[in-house]
Design brief:
Blueprint (H helix, E strand, L loop, with lengths): L1 E6 L4 H9 L7 E7 L5 H8 L4 E3 L9 H14 L4 E4 L8 H6 L4 E5 L11 H7 L4 E8 L9 E8 L6 H24 L6 E2 L1
Parallel strand pairs: 1-2, 1-4, 2-3, 4-5, 7-8
Antiparallel strand pairs: 5-6, 6-7
Helix pairs in contact: 1-6, 5-6
Bound molecules: 5-O-phosphono-beta-D-ribofuranosylamine.
Length: 194
């Protein structure tokens, strides 16, 4: 299977996916693309010999369709079977999402359906939750709402700051996303609970 990965920033999840797609893994990375030409993750992908592309969303002010049409060019040229959103911070239109229906995944730093959207760790702490975590789900037109493919839980510790909790969750994201992608690429969509 051919996998394209969309990122916006450092790309630590992207790296874990790429590093896992070796040997008997049923998939291979064919493209890493970003909405920010300065995303540090692009250089990391290039250093591993993976094709990259950047389409700056700032070149398309108030023009989502224009941005997505530009992003589709390198994406379709790479002929991906699966698309992984990994720290990709642009909301995609229903038209774009439905084009890749059933084969686009996202990782979200909360135990969905709790805390869709942003600031998930601060919200979990403010609510006094004992647990937090991350979710890999299929992407559907409704934000952070598609079928869950995997989840991992971490404790919320006394005195936790959102940054400390985010770091603890990110470490587990790096285990969860590769494990889920390996199953998904092999045709297994049963949820994985780590
Ligand atoms: N969507 C969220 O953005 C962060 C990105 O991290 P990275 O993969 O770019 O390091 C991760 O916590 C991910 O869940």
């Amino acid at each position: 299977k051919r996998v394209a990965i969309l990122i916006s920033g450092g790309g630590s999840n992207m790296l874990r996916l790429v590093e896992d797609m070796i040997g008997d893994h049923p998939a291979r990375p064919v493209l890493v693309a970003s909405n920010d030409p300065h995303a540090a993750g692009l250089e990391k992908a290039e250093a591993r010999g993976i094709a990259t592309a950047a389409v700056d969303h700032r070149d398309f002010p108030r023009d989502r369709a224009g941005f997505e049409a530009a992003l589709l060019r390198p994406l379709l040229a790479a002929k991906p079977d699966i698309i992984c959103l990994a720290g990709f911070m642009r909301i995609l239109t229903p038209e774009f999402v439905s084009r890749f229906s059933g084969r686009m995944l996202n990782i979200h730093p909360s135990l969905l359906p709790k805390y869709q959207g942003l600031d998930t760790h601060a919200r979990a702490i403010a609510a006094g939750d004992a647990e937090a975590g991350a979710t890999v789900h299929e992407v559907t037109p409704e934000l952070d709402s598609g079928p869950i493919l995997g989840q991992v839980r971490v404790p919320v510790l006394p005195g936790d700051t959102p940054q400390a909790l985010a770091a603890r969750v990110l470490e587990q994201e790096h285990r969860l996303y590769p494990a889920v992608l390996r199953r998904f690429a092999a045709g297994d969509r049963t949820p994985l609970m780590l």
